[in-house]
Specification:
The complex is a heterodimer of chains A (333) and B (262). Chain A is mostly helical and 333 residues long. Chain A has 15 helices and six strands. In chain A, helix 3 runs antiparallel to helix 10 and helix 12 runs parallel beside helix 15. In chain B, helix 5 runs parallel beside helix 6. In chain B, helix 6 links the parallel strand 8 and strand 9. Classes of the chains: A mainly alpha (333), B alpha/beta (262). Chain B: InterPro entries: AAA+_ATPase (IPR003593), ABC_AA/LPS_Transport (IPR051120), ABC_transporter-like_ATP-bd (IPR003439), BCA_ABC_TP_C (IPR032823), P-loop_NTPase (IPR027417).
């Protein structure tokens, strides 16, 4: 009887946290993003969203899967080339081009994941770095990638063959590419929603258990390699989605996006914002990309400045910006 | 083969770069019994466990579980067949509540843990069963506590609850009372006796008092080989066993003596 009562009371307390979307923050975020192009340069805002999605995709693997990949640029940049090729050479519509590139990144993720998953810790990171370098050299050498020049002049095309994404709307003397902007907004929120869903799903719980204690998860009968591989492929695909979208936005796929610097940059964004929090990578990406933008007059001193900020951040608040705030508030965002 | 033998090893051996950690071990674990594996430090007990649960591949020999050769299987596949192990170092998911530790095990049994597109509210369905299991090991009041913050003895109890969630046919417990205070040892001993009903347990245990109380059959390992086998009375009077323990630790030898007389 007593035990029964206890079960009843605890049932109310023990629901899994965050399992239902809290619509208020989602609505607020959407409102802010929808208003953004009227206040900041739209192309910059779209770039921010692409990098935010990239960092979130990376964080799905690092923060929730416990796997540090040092080669995520190959999915981001590789997909940029794939979508660029599909749009420019094949003349696919933008949504098909991006879908194709995302699928390509997923396949690449599967191939690299199958090799890397066999190793752990620093060896995992090294394998991903080495394989990503192979992709980098492929992008440098292949005839269709444009070598050092990259793929330039990628056309925006018509969404579903109907809506011209290169069209602009004149508001207050400014030419705003609103069609493209809201397409990118939809992709970013769709990707972010998928990550949120994954983290708060049965799969997410299993992934957490594996990250916490792999041997124990194995002894409970979880085939841990499959879960890690699934997380890797999903992270690669979403990073590819971000890269493909970015190529559409700036009309360019270049070696910068596929180089190891970019792999390092996304690690930095994630750690700065707060690894293992949902919002952290967004904050980290916005911070890093904005700093690059604002400090671009400093030339190569940008790297030194961002490096210093990173060192300070790691020393002062190890959990990252959002992680630290969440810790103070004892709440998970 | 024999219906009453749940697990059998034939000529099981493991070499690490030429060093034979375990050699030619032939074990027979009877269904429904508590079988203890004892021996001085470095005798190869944990290695045998790792070989049985496939965490290590054997160099020689075969492992037969319920009449099926499982030598070539992967750890997760062995677990799916109902052969569940615990670890020497307490194995919990430290940043998950005690309740979630058990629920994640129940999730594996129920299936659907690959679903990334549904809500984790699926786990709420396992709360009642998880609370019952926690109550069984005396952890009702600690359901919401993060496993990493539990006291050592409670972590071991949680580990047993998590293992029980899988309804194992054969439980392999690696030193369940290691590092525990006396009250905890008594509690866990009673717990093992209780959960052993209708199950088979193979345990590695240092505490000979626990072994004397619980085990139906004891296998003594020394230097990777079976030294002696039988019930406690037989084994404890075996001069080779006395010698093996004396040779390594006088404490344990007196403990063996004391437990026998007491």
């Amino acid at each position: 009887m007593q035990a029964h009562d206890l079960n009843q009371t605890s049932l109310n307390v023990v629901r899994m946290a965050d399992s239902r979307p809290n619509y208020l923050p989602w609505g607020m975020a959407l409102a802010v993003c929808a208003a953004a192009p009227f206040f900041i340069y739209p192309v910059f805002a779209m770039e921010l969203m692409c990098f935010a999605l990239f960092a979130c995709a990376f964080n799905l693997l690092l923060g929730f899967g416990g796997l540090l990949s040092f080669g995520h640029a190959c999915f981001f940049g590789g997909a940029a080339y794939l979508s660029g090729h599909a749009l420019k050479v094949w003349g696919l519509t933008p949504e098909l081009g991006i879908l194709f590139a995302t699928a390509g990144a997923a396949v690449l993720g599967l191939l690299i994941g199958l090799v890397a998953i066999r190793r752990q810790g620093i060896y995992f990171a090294m394998v991903t770095l080495a394989l990503a370098q192979i992709v980098f050299f492929a992008c440098l050498q292949l005839p269709m990638t444009g070598g050092e020049d990259g793929l330039q002049g990628i056309p925006k095309g018509r969404l579903l063959g109907l809506i011209d994404l290169s069209a602009t709307v004149s508001i207050g003397g400014q030419q705003l590419p609103l069609a493209l902007y809201f397409f990118v907004l939809a992709i970013t929120f769709g990707g972010y929603w998928l990550i949120w869903r994954t983290v708060n799903s049965p799969f997410g719980v299993a992934l957490k258990a594996i990250r916490e204690n792999e041997a124990r998860a194995l002894s409970l009968g979880y085939r841990v390699d499959r879960y890690k591989l699934a997380a890797f492929v999903m992270s690669a695909a979403l990073a590819g989605l971000a890269g493909a979208t970015k190529a559409l936005v700036v009309g360019l796929a270049s070696l910068t996006d596929v180089s190891w610097h970019m792999s390092g940059e996304v690690v930095l964004m994630t750690l700065l914002g707060g690894m293992g929090t949902l919002l952290g990578p967004v904050v980290g990406a916005v911070t890093v990309v904005s700093l690059h933008h604002e400090l671009s007059s400093l030339g190569s001193w940008v790297t030194v400045t961002i490096g210093s900020i990173f060192v300070l951040c790691v020393l002062a608040f190890r959990r990252g910006i959002v992680g630290e705030i969440a810790h103070r508030l004892k709440k998970t965002f | 083969m024999d219906q009453d033998i749940i697990l059998e090893t034939q000529g099981l051996g493991k070499e690490f770069r030429g060093f034979a950690a375990v050699s030619d071990v032939n074990l027979k674990v009877a269904r429904g019994s508590i079988h203890a594996l004892i021996g001085p430090n470095g005798a190869g007990k944990t290695t045998v466990f790792n070989l049985l649960t496939k965490f290590l591949p054997p160099t020689h020999g075969r492992v037969i579980y319920q009449g099926e050769d499982i030598t070539a299987l992967q750890p997760a596949e062995v677990a799916l067949k109902g052969l569940i192990r615990s670890f020497q170092i307490s194995a919990v998911f430290p940043n998950m509540s005690a309740l979630d530790n058990v629920r994640v095990a129940l999730l594996r049994v129920a299936g659907g843990s690959h679903r990334f597109w549904t809500s984790n509210r699926q786990l709420d369905a396992y709360t009642d069963r998880a609370m019952t299991l926690l109550a069984d090991v005396g952890l009702t009041d600690f359901a919401q506590v993060l496993a990493g913050e539990l006291a050592y003895g409670r972590k071991r109890a949680l580990e047993i609850a998590t293992t029980l969630a899988l309804e194992p046919k054969l439980m392999l417990l690696d030193e369940p009372t290691q590092g525990m205070g006396i009250e905890d040892v008594d509690r866990v001993t009673a717990l093992i006796r209780r959960v052993a009903e209708g199950r088979t347990i193979l345990m590695v245990e240092h505490n000979l008092k626990v072994v004397a109380t619980l085990a139906d059959k004891i296998t003594v390992l020394a230097r990777g080989q079976v030294l002696s086998e039988g019930n406690y009375a037989t084994v404890s009077q075996d001069p080779r066993v006395m010698e093996a323990y004396m040779g390594v630790s006088a404490d344990e030898a007196t403990e063996l003596e004391g437990a026998h007389h007491g």
